[in-house]
Amino acid sequence: MSYTIQDVNGCTKKFIFNFEKVDLSKEIKEAVVAKQQNSNLKGFRKGKAPLEMVQKLFGPQIENDALYRFISNEYFEAVKKENIRAVGYPQFGNTKYEAGKTVAFEATVEVIPDFDLKDYSKYTFKKDAETVTDEDFETLKKNYLSSKAEVAEVTDAGHKLAKGDFAVFNFEGEKADGSKPDNMKAQEYMLEIGSGQFIPGFEDGMIGLKKGDKKDVKVTFPADYHEEALKNAPVTFHVELLEIKQKNFPELTDELAKQFGFESVADFTTKNKERMTLQKKREVQSKLQQEILEKLIEENKFEVPNALIEDQKESVKQDLAKTLKQQGFNEQMIALYFERWTDDVTQKASFQVRSGLILDKLAKKFNIEATEADLDAKIDEMVAQSGMKKDEIAKFYKSNENIKRNLMYAIREEKTFAALTKEMKVS
Questions:
Q1: Rounded CA gap, 13 and 144, in Å?
Q2: How far apart (Å, rounded) are the C-alpha atoms in residues 124 and 425?
Q3: Residue 120 in contact with residue 297, Cβ under 8 Å?
Q4: Is-contact 275 132, C-beta < 8 A?
Q5: CA distance 20 to 100
Q6: Residue 98 DSSP SS3
Q7: Nearest to 99 by CA among 19, 24, 2, 29
Q8: How far apart are alpha carbons 7 and 5 in whole angstroms?
Q9: Residue 86 to residue 63: CA distance in whole angstroms
Q10: Which residues in 309-344 are b (16+ Cβ under 10 Å) and which e?
Q11: Cα separation of 253 and 233, whole Å?
Q12: I need a labelling partner for 344 at 20 to 30 A (CA). Which of 93, 159, 273, 359 fits?
């Protein structure tokens, strides 16, 4: 064996190669042919110059190329032989070469860390209820009927403003120094209470007001507010409630149900309750899984390859960028967002990498793999949840290898969690 291996840290190894006698003739031939194909020499068509001429003209460069081929081949052969799970590309250094005699070099590379999980059998978790309530269903039904609803003024003078009501009001903001900027005042402004459109605390501060009431609502602007002068700024809003309005929802009839894509009210109720039940189960399971991962990561400390985190950061940023664009952010705003929240992106990426490594280790422990039967079952679940045609969903996930691989990975994680929770105390 012409190399030794040193552990730099828990996720980095250094290969130290030393060859006392080296023959690079094979690599030189390969380098000459590669150079010939890309050479455009006068008097010859591209790639057709004689090999002897190419070697004579580009001798030193060809020898360097040959040396690089030798170094790369030896490194990758060593990684394969040692069954090392390398991450990213190695960093080569300390190269020493004496033509026709010796070659020595080092290759430092990050690797998937080897770690042992602490005993998790005594961990306890509480799983939320998976029941879909009548209130949940009524909320969903109102979402459907919202486009058909009419907003009308509440005539009851004693009615108190509540979440879901629409407030028509005048307001004027006053800063701590007594100034009242023009961009913090409005007349006859309409706001749905509970929609979260205003500064946190503002809408809650209006709850309970009656038509004609006046109130000073005190809030503190968020630390990440887009206007620098208002970050963490305490502001008092002088509010006068002019009107209270509510949405009057029509009764759900068979005719309306058909407009929403259902056969009848009964079909609307049955299918939506089934979908809501599946959605609730997924939400509950997702919350439980997050809590389990947080506990496992907290209890098991190990070094993680920086290359994995950097790759995952790009994935996190791509997902966030899509979400921000849907919220109306342009490219400049997205760039500023990532500049401001770079630490959060890094932390999220690190969490995802660590959790992925832990789940991979557990999947191997439980001998879990995702099968084609699992994929078909998952597609059936998606059909039940979305109401889309099975052929459409199956085609989407099976026609693109990357998309299919990601779904198979998610299925493997689900099966791993199912096995893991059996070994924990989940009430």
A1: 58
A2: 5
A3: no
A4: no
A5: 10
A6: strand
A7: 24
A8: 7
A9: 28
A10: beebbeebbeebbeebeeeebeeeebeebbeeeeee
A11: 50
A12: 359
User: Is this prediction's pTM over 0.85?
Assistant: no
Axis crossing angle, helix 342-365 with helix 401-421, rounded to the nearest 10: 70
The SS3 of residue 117 is: coil
Region 190-216 average pLDDT: 93
Nearest to 251 by CA among 144, 133, 136, 137: 144
- 107-137 per-residue burial string, b: 16 or more CB within 10 A, e: under 16: bbbbbbbebeeeeeeebeeeeeeeebeeeee
% of the chain with per-residue pLDDT over 70: 93
Cβ within 8 Å of residue 399, ≥6 positions away: none
Q: Are strands 124-125 and 425-426 parallel, antiparallel or unpaired?
A: parallel
pLDDT score for 64: 74
Alpha-carbon distance of 307 to 110, in angstroms, equals 8
Q: Which of 67, 225, 229, 246 is nearest to 162 (CA)?
A: 246
- Looking up tokens 């006053």 gives 174
Token pair listed for 75: 């490194």
- Are the C-beta atoms of residues 174 and 270 closer than 8 Å to each other? no
110/80 Cα distance (integer angstroms): 15
Measure the CA–CA gap between 34 and 62, rounded to whole angstroms.
9
> Which amino acid type is present at position 284?
V
Q: Are 240 and 170 in contact (CB under 8 A)?
A: yes
Residues forming beta bridges with residue 93, ordered by sequence position = 106
Indicate the average pLDDT of the chain. Answer: 89
Residue 240 token pair: 């006068």
Spell out the domains of the chain, with CATH numbers in brackets.
3-111 (3.30.70.1050), 150-248 (3.10.50.40), 276-426 (1.10.3120.10)
pLDDT tens-digit readout, 70-92: 888 899 999 999 999 999 899 99
Provide mean pLDDT across the span 307-328: 91
